[in-house]
Amino acid sequence: MTPDSELLRRFAKTNSEDAFAELVERHANLVYSAALRQVNGDEHLAKDVAQMVFADLARKASSLSRRESLTGWLYTSTHFAAVKIVRGENRRRDREIKSMREPIQETGPDPDWEKLRTTLDAAMHELKETDREAVLLRYFENRQFAEVGAKLGLNENAARMRVERALEKLRDIFTKRGVTTATALASVISANAIQIAPANLAATLTTASMASAGTGTFTLLKIMTATKLKLAFSAIVVAGAVTAFMVQHQAQEKLRVENESLRQQVAQWQTDNDSLSNRLAAVGDPKSLSDEQFNELLKLRGEVGMLRNQVIEIGKLREENRQISRELADATQTLQSLPSPEQALFNKKRVQAVNDAKMVGLAMRIWAGDNNDQYPTNFEDMTNELGGVTNVMHFKEAFEFVNAGVANEHYPQMLMLREITPLQAPDGKWERAYGFADGSVQTITSNDGNFDDWEKQQQQNNPPPPNQ
Predict the structure, then answer these.
(1) Which of 136-140, 178-182, 233-237 holds the top average pLDDT?
(2) pTM of the model
């Protein structure tokens, strides 16, 4: 069997859809089963969680390709993605109380599994990463000890010992939670932890994940449909563009119909006017007319008055026509001023990165105030200041410290934080967010993605070494 790391490297280098599809097929059941438990059995939410996890895997393929096994990373990512989706779903349900429905409850023939199901994943995440990986490989994926050892870099006996110790720790965690089973814990987990994912889910996840990572050949509309990531800002832009096109089309159609109607009326009125002129000329002097001819003359003059009123109406219609033309020009200008969907998506990501950098900078200053003006050296130290483990994981993947150490209020422009991966704009240029000691954030642009020269210039804002 080709190792996970080799498949991921192949995908990262060549965008091989076959390699990524094999990874998804290999781990879809694990991810889907863990997600299903953590979203209270809601199959639709479980599919959304799985989609988020594999999309994240596609985006981080290069950095994760050094891992021998993806099982632990996928399991942990599923936990965080499920927490995020459940939190969002709960908020949505709070806003839509009238449409609230009871969560789907799984029923199963194994009473021991029912006791463990709702707390299994939370208990698993109380284990250390190495212990959690061992339990996942042995009892979730049902691998032999020799294969577990190969994945963990251990021999078979050492792998067996680690699995047994990890299982004992997991049993202690359940006991503290008041959960006990009549059947052996290992047997319950092995028999029930992994469920078969819905048919075609792996293919759907492969397509959606590769599309969201920018490796597919989909159009923007297909990407948004496949991944269900309906970004608010992009949606507004697309809706605005569609509205402008509709306004333009409707205005053009209205102008075409009214112009045609005006041409027909003018032609008819011109014909009537010529006829009346001829008839008036034939009538001659009113004094020499008979009563019948005189009445005819009055009738003709009345019709002439009506024609004059209609000419006035034509003037009004022409003014309305000009107004519609101006509105059409304004709609066209509005459409041209809208950013492209790609630019709108880039702008949203850039705003998010700047806001995140400001949050990290604030957390660093708060932490330093409580720790003798010492800046933290890792994100885990600021778990409370950043609002929990989920945020720590998010910020740690996005930013890195530059000058971690002693805070110095006399050097407010000292560079403290930078974005790990610069963002490339639709015009090809690269942008990177930087955070400074005073809490400010600045976005720097580079034509080639190299920021070394600019960062060297910022060293003049650092305090001198202690021996100077």
Answers:
(1) 136-140
(2) 0.34
Label residue 457 exposed, middle or buried (CB < 10 Å: 0-12, 13-18, 19+): exposed
The span from the CA of 443 to the CA of 446, in Å, is 10
pLDDT digits (tens, 9 = 90+) for 23-34: 898 999 999 999
Q: How many CB atoms lie within 10 A of CB 209?
A: 28
**Torsions phi, psi for 373 (to 5 deg):** 60, 25
Q: Which residues contact 407 (CB under 8 A, 6 or more apart)?
A: 365, 368, 373, 374, 375, 437
Closest C-alpha to 350, from 416, 287, 425:
425
pLDDT over 90 at 184, yes or no = no
Question: Which contacts of 86-91 are long-range, i.e. CB under 8 A and separated by 24 or more positions?
Answer: 86/38, 86/39, 86/40, 86/45, 89/39, 89/42, 89/45
Terminal-residue alpha carbon distance, the chain: 59
Residues 449, 457 contacting (CB under 8 angstroms):
no
CA distances from 359 to 125, 372, 411, 412, 417 (A): 26, 21, 20, 17, 11
- Confidence bin at 420 (pLDDT 50/70/90): very high
- pLDDT tens string 267-305: 776 676 666 666 655 555 555 556 676 677 777 777 777
Closest CA to 387 of 407, 360, 365, 368: 360
Looking at residue 79, its pLDDT comes to 92
- For the ranges 150-154, 194-198, 201-205, the lowest mean pLDDT is seen at 201-205
**Is the pLDDT reported for residue 244 higher than 70?**
no
pLDDT at 107: 44
Neighbours of 156 (CB within 10 A): 14
